Model the fold of this input.
Amino acid sequence: MSYDLPPTVHISTHPCLQAKLSQLRQSTTNARETKALVHEISLIVACEATAAGLTTKKGESAKTHLGYEYTTTTVSPGSISIVPILRSGLGMLDAIQTLLPDPAPVHHLGLFREPTTLEPVEYYNNLPYHRPAANTPSDSPNSGASELAILLDPVIATGGTCAAAIQTLKEWGVKRVIVIAILGALPGLQKAANEWPEGVEIWVAGVDGEITERGMIKPGLGDVGDRLFLTIGK
Done:
């Protein structure tokens, strides 16, 4: 099925991924299975996203176990941060940390949707504070920001939360954002992609066409955070 989406939104067609997404949708999938499927889906989507969004560069010389010298390979950009949106983004974190060849700092963003307006509300942000150097303008670029932020948002429904996180990362000073998601609704993906068209690429396992009046994707996955942390109904 084709969707009217910006070219910066990439929907995976991996057969194993589509089967796992179908399993994740099922109401009979328990919390342990949900955690495993979120991890596996995130890993596959992240492989596709980083294959397109990162490049390699030559590193230092090293020796193999047989004593032969070779030139090491690293990824570029060298400055990468992982930014999960609390809570559900935490379920994707281990997959991204597993994939990246070097440890990357993790900065958490806490956002929730106000139940009546469905507008995003930020309640936590631990991006490193930028203090301009002496005798520099207060709006000077943040030299401490990562070049690339990998934003983890499992479900993009209305797109408001993802768009707010993208704007926060842009203001922090990143040059690019890669969004990794499990499921997105058509209007939400459009909204998130249009928040910063030249700086954002969105990679998602699947797309549903509708959202309900309560801002839930139809047919969707339910609340991934509640499913992961066994807080359904609380």
About this structure: The chain has a mean pLDDT of 92.
